[in-house]
Amino acid sequence: MNPRLHPREDHWLDYASGHLDPASRTLLEAHLAFCGICRREAGQDLAPGGALLAAMPEAEPPAELLQGILARLKAPEAPRVGGEALPLPRALWSLLPSLEGAAWHGALTRGFRFLEAGGGLFLIHMEKGRPFPEHGHRGLERAVILAGGLEDAGRVLEAGDFDEEDPSRVHAPVALPDEDCWLLASLEGGIRFTGWRGLLQRAAGR
Ligand SMILES: [Zn+2]
Q: What residue range is the signal peptide (predicted)?
């Protein structure tokens, strides 16, 4: 199923012109891994990454990924953290920096953890049915759901959906009840020690 929530058109112009920071670029490429619509619209203008992106497979259901793909495919290997292979779509593996040396942060809320993937990018894991820790009035800057989904203020976001938050909006996402939710989030642009970024900074001891 194609994602329903897409990056704005001007993001693709920035992407094609190479004017994006690495974190934003990774988020857009994560969306492209799921989204045939955006691949068709944006992929033709992208070089040299265009051929790579066009070759990405269609998104497959996370359950299938969990059960079959990791076992079937040998290289490249799934990203690992502390020896744990992450159940992320294969099309994303090459996009992520090495996470082997990264450490999980969290324990602010049971069933929630995150790690820094470098360059302002965070990989977040919410156990099924669990909420994101309560936070202030600054929202996520940008996020892409990698697996599972979450409910956020009456909206349901699922794999591949790209979300860009209005910083003034208060929200409290909750992972959907049937599957763990994995997402990539870019927190650039936040004000230090406030909102999401401050929450993560404090949790990381910074
Ligand atoms: Zn799209």
A: none
